[in-house]
């Protein structure tokens, strides 16, 4: 009986093993190209749903053991479309793969349409959503840093709402707009700063980065010419996500980040400060001996000690001004649809506590993108976005009550008094009093919307109409209590409202038809109309019965009120045609005619043509099938773009109401110039796109020249002309930008388990003013406009160090000799030294390096950015590194290297209290701002497919990301990118003044998809 049972079990076991072995078997084959049947080595072959895989050998052959007859093989290779093939009962599976032009960056948005990058004749940088996801920052512009050649993106400082400067291929204007045109889902956006407190406010905070599908940056004139009059500074096209047919998917993104300043500076502590001030006072010559000077110091410092003995106080004011930050992000989106309707709906929340005390941001946003196919030929849709952003703001950099100026306080002053109140007797106004007894709240509500309809008359002819709306509504409430610094009345409240709306409509036809068997013609023609209105009003009230009352209605006196209304409109017609022959010869031409209300009556309309061509040499028979060169395309383009003044009525004579002797009247406020017209930029671009080793190495190289004519300036007029401001806007001046751009992408490793891709971009720019009014220099503060030099070059006296005999600061004379050379002798008399051009705030080189690595379910990516050749001026240095020659501000520890006795070799002069020994504006405070920064890094882990199926989910990923983690620079200030945010873009260009550094942020996040 036992023998029979044992025999039966052995039979069952044998049958099971035979069945398993029958399922698990080997399959082999050869992979070739569809074009010429040549073998493809290095193709990845994976059994779908598993990590079981291999790669083809040098002859394109492979062999793989599969688990069952139901197995599906996935064949993938760079530059070719992925193929999935069911094995069935076959033991041999041969595959032919098609070259995939979409891997050359797929489809890019080019304005009123899309185009395959393989057929582009222009320079367009494309950035996908995967490249910007997981970066915790309020402004989406910060996610683009280091991602596109020729695009310099700078966050002005570390404030959460801080302005972001975007410069594409150099500055192309001096007094008109220097920012690119932003277009979201085909609709123009308003990008005007509406800050009411001096410090700039980023107007694009309303955009949720998680909603962005792709960003396309139009850089050359041919690409941007379709936007005509506003495209001189480039165009940034933002495309938001849409619903896809199929089962609805729900995506949830959660993250929590903590941050701190990217850099701290070393300041004197109590002992160092006391030593310096006693030495400085004695060196001043004001006192008979050391005892007398020490007595003065003792008396002076007692002023700031509050109710403590200053000898027992050692305050780190830098630590008081800064704080640990946190950023909490949460977003959810639902996407799906059927063959008739697709929908994408999202909601997002961000809570951002900044690194500067009292600076916070909270944002809610919601988006709905719906597309509906009404019939076989008619499509309609709507894009709608609403955001609500509340910001607790602080004063601009050049204000005593801004927290970061607290570093100027003496370390012997306590922050608070014994009763807990902030110390009101500090050297300068104590920002803690401002923080406790006042607030500055700004609320921005923004609505972005678009409705569209598209009708297909013929398979090759479509008509599309779009109506877009951008409403920016900002309210500001500012209250200053009676105990706040500089408050002379019993409290003051300020309230303002600004509404700026932009309505636009686009109407255009698209024609796309094959011409014979060898050609294709794509043409777009239409019109667009844009109208913008802005209305603002504000009121100030003084005197409140108690600080508990904060609204203007409770004020005893309405002390001020203002309001204005302004508008502009623009009507445009455009046409663009692209012809492709044999898929290798491409010719494109466009023309746009813009009419704007902001110009003189005879110059309202401007014409903006462009032409471009490309030759895909790799498609020629003599290169087709090359084992080395897989892609080669030459491009050339020329076009004209425009730029408009910041004033809506710059061509008109304006009058305003005034009060005179208690009565009302009219007064001239602006002189007329009916000949005012566009700034006009012509640009030539020559480029080559290339690919090697089956596109495992791809890239592009471009050279451009941009010439801007008819620069808009305020030109001085004779006093006798009786024109307000003694100036009128005129078109006088020109400048040039030229440079190279290189992008290089490589697939370093590609195996079934491990993939590694890298992209490097680097670009140069040389900016030069070629013509100014009458050829005259224009000097503003430490900057100069001069023919033959870059915009806003630094114009300073040259610092020459310290006389080792007596500790005097020395300066280079730099007067002109008879032979035209400069006198390089030195003097200790600052007034005898002449200013010269000593640098530029514009970098010569910018670059970025991004890399992505994946190993099974682990992903890792990083981006480095860098810039070289620019300089930054530390305007605060004239207070921070003077040895008390310019006030009693606390000093950086650089002052410890000061000259103290004859023979000392140093570049820090002798400390002399209230004596100017080197603290005048000079190159002493000018430094190179070269840097390399680890901009962002991300490490993630995704659950394997087998586990996700059990959880009924399609994605679960946990990740860590970092922003601004490392900065390599010789600049000894807070940050090589930080600059003064006082809101005045025409003074102190490239200078910082107690400017907070950006935040270093560590973020942990979770991505879920159901």
TrEMBL record:
<dbReference type="InterPro" id="IPR039426">
    <property type="entry name" value="TonB-dep_rcpt-like"/>
</dbReference>
<dbReference type="InterPro" id="IPR023997">
    <property type="entry name" value="TonB-dep_OMP_SusC/RagA_CS"/>
</dbReference>
<comment type="similarity">
    <text>Belongs to the TonB-dependent receptor family.</text>
</comment>
<dbReference type="InterPro" id="IPR037066">
    <property type="entry name" value="Plug_dom_sf"/>
</dbReference>
<keyword id="KW-0812">Transmembrane</keyword>
<dbReference type="InterPro" id="IPR000531">
    <property type="entry name" value="Beta-barrel_TonB"/>
</dbReference>
<feature type="domain" description="TonB-dependent receptor plug">
    <location>
        <begin position="123"/>
        <end position="235"/>
    </location>
</feature>
<dbReference type="InterPro" id="IPR023996">
    <property type="entry name" value="TonB-dep_OMP_SusC/RagA"/>
</dbReference>
<dbReference type="InterPro" id="IPR012910">
    <property type="entry name" value="Plug_dom"/>
</dbReference>
<dbReference type="InterPro" id="IPR036942">
    <property type="entry name" value="Beta-barrel_TonB_sf"/>
</dbReference>
<dbReference type="Pfam" id="PF13715">
    <property type="entry name" value="CarbopepD_reg_2"/>
</dbReference>
<dbReference type="Pfam" id="PF07715">
    <property type="entry name" value="Plug"/>
</dbReference>
<keyword id="KW-0732">Signal</keyword>
<keyword id="KW-0798">TonB box</keyword>
<keyword id="KW-0675">Receptor</keyword>
<keyword id="KW-0998">Cell outer membrane</keyword>
<feature type="signal peptide">
    <location>
        <begin position="1"/>
        <end position="22"/>
    </location>
</feature>
<keyword id="KW-0813">Transport</keyword>
<feature type="domain" description="TonB-dependent receptor-like beta-barrel">
    <location>
        <begin position="446"/>
        <end position="964"/>
    </location>
</feature>
<protein>
    <submittedName>
        <fullName>TonB-dependent receptor</fullName>
    </submittedName>
</protein>
<keyword id="KW-0472">Membrane</keyword>
<keyword id="KW-1134">Transmembrane beta strand</keyword>
<dbReference type="Pfam" id="PF00593">
    <property type="entry name" value="TonB_dep_Rec_b-barrel"/>
</dbReference>
<dbReference type="InterPro" id="IPR008969">
    <property type="entry name" value="CarboxyPept-like_regulatory"/>
</dbReference>
């Amino acid at each position: 009986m036992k023998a029979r049972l044992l025999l039966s079990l052995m039979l069952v076991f044998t049958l099971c093993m035979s069945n398993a072995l029958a399922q698990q078997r080997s399959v082999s084959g050869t992979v070739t190209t569809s074009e010429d049947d040549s073998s493809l080595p290095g193709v990845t072959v994976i059994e779908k749903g598993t990590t079981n895989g291999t790669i083809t050998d040098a002859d394109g052959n492979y062999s793989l053991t599969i688990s069952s007859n139901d197995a599906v093989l996935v064949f993938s290779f760079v530059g070719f479309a992925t193929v999935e093939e069911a094995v069935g009962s076959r033991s041999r599976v041969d595959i032919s793969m098609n070259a995939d032009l979409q891997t050359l960056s797929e489809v890019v948005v080019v304005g009123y349409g899309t185009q395959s990058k393989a057929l582009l004749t222009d320079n367009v940088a494309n950035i996908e959503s995967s490249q910007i996801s997981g970066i915790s920052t309020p402004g989406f512009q910060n996610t683009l840093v280091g991602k596109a050649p020729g695009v310099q993106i700078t966050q002005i400082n570390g404030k959460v709402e801080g302005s972001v400067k975007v410069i594409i291929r150099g500055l192309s204007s001096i007094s008109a707009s220097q920012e690119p045109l932003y277009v979201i889902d085909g609709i123009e956006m308003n990008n005007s700063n509406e800050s009411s407190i001096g410090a700039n406010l980023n107007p694009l905070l309303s955009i949720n980065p998680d909603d962005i599908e792709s960003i396309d940056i139009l850089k050359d004139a041919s690409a941007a010419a379709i936007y005509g009059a506003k495209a001189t500074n480039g165009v940034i096209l933002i495309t938001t996500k849409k619903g896809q047919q199929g089962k609805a998917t729900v995506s949830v993104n959660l993250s929590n980040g903590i941050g701190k300043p990217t850099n701290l500076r070393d300041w004197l502590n109590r002992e160092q400060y006391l030593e310096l001030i006693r030495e400085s006072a004695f060196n001043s010559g004001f006192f008979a001996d050391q005892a007398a000077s020490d007595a003065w110091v003792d008396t002076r410092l007692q002023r700031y000690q509050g109710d403590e003995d200053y000898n027992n106080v050692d305050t780190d004011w830098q630590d008081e001004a800064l704080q640990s930050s946190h950023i909490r992000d949460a977003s959810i989106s639902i996407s799906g649809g059927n063959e008739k309707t697709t929908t994408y709906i999202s909601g997002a929340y961000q809570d951002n506590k900044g690194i500067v005390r009292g600076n916070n941001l909270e944002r809610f946003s919601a988006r709905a993108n719906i597309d509906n196919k009404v019939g076989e030929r008619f499509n309609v849709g709507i894009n709608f976005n609403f955001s609500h952003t509340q910001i607790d703001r602080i004063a601009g950099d050049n204000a005593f009550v801004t927290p970061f100026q607290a570093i100027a306080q003496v370390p012997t002053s306590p922050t608070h008094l014994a009763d807990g109140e902030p110390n009101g007797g500090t050297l300068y106004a104590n920002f803690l009093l401002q923080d406790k007894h006042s607030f500055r709240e700004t609320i921005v509500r923004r609505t972005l919307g678009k409705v569209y309809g598209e009708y297909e008359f013929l398979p090759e002819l479509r008509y599309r109409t779009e109506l877009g709306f951008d409403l920016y509504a900002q309210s500001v409430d500012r209250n200053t209590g009676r105990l706040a610094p500089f408050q002379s009345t019993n409290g003051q409240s300020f309230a303002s409202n600004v509404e700026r709306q932009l309505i636009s409509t686009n109407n255009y036809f698209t024609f796309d038809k094959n011409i014979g068997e060898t050609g294709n013609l794509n043409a777009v023609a239409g019109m667009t109309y844009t109208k913008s209105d802005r209305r603002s009003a504000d009121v100030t009230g003084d005197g409140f019965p108690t600080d508990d009352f904060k609204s203007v209605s409770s004020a005893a006196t309405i002390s001020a009120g203002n309001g204005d209304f302004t508008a502009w409109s623009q009507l445009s017609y455009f046409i663009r045609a692209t012809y492709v022959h044999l898929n290798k010869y491409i010719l494109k031409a466009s023309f746009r005619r813009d009419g704007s209300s902001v110009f003189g009556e005879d110059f309202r309309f401007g014409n903006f043509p462009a032409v471009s061509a490309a030759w895909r040499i790799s498609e020629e028979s003599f290169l087709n099938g090359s084992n080395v060169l897989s892609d080669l395309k030459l491009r050339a383009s020329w076009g004209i773009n425009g730029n408009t003044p910041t004033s809506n009525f710059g061509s008109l004579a304006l009058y305003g109401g005034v009060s005179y002797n208690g009565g009302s009247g009219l007064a001239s406020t602006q002189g007329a110039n009916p000949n005012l017209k566009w700034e006009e930029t012509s640009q030539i671009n020559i480029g080559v796109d290339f690919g090697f080793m089956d596109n495992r190495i791809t890239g592009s190289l471009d050279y451009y020249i941009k010439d801007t004519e008819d620069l808009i300036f305020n030109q001085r007029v004779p006093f006798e002309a009786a024109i307000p401001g003694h100036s009128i806007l005129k078109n006088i001046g020109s400048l040039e930008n030229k440079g190279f751009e290189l992008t290089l992408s490589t697939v370093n490793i590609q195996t079934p388990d491990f993939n590694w891709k890298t992209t490097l971009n680097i670009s140069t720019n040389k900016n030069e003013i070629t013509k100014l009014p009458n050829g005259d220099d224009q000097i503003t503060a430490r900057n100069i406009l001069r023919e033959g030099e870059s915009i806003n070059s630094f114009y300073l006296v040259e610092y020459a160090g310290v006389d080792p005999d007596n500790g005097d600061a020395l300066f280079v004379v730099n007067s002109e000799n008879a032979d035209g050379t400069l006198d390089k002798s030195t003097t200790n008399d600052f007034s005898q030294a002449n200013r010269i051009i000593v640098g530029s705030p514009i970098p010569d080189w910018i670059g970025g390096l991004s890399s992505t690595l994946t190993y099974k379910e682990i992903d890792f990516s990083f981006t480095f950015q860098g810039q070289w050749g620019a300089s930054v001026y530390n305007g605060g240095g004239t207070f921070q590194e003077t040895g008390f020659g310019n006030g009693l501000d606390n000093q950086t520890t650089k002052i410890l290297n000061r000259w103290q006795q004859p023979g000392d070799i140093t570049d820090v002069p002798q400390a002399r209290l209230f004596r100017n020994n080197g603290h005048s504006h000079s190159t002493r405070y000018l430094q190179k701002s070269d840097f390399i920064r680890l901009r962002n890094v991300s490490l993630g882990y995704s659950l394997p497919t087998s586990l996700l199926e059990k959880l009924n989910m399609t994605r679960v990923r946990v990740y860590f990301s970092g922003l601004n983690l490392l900065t390599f620079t010789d600049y000894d200030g807070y940050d090589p990118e930080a600059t003064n945010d006082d809101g005045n873009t025409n003074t102190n260009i490239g200078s910082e003044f107690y400017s907070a550094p950006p935040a270093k942020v560590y973020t942990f996040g979770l991505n879920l998809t159901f």
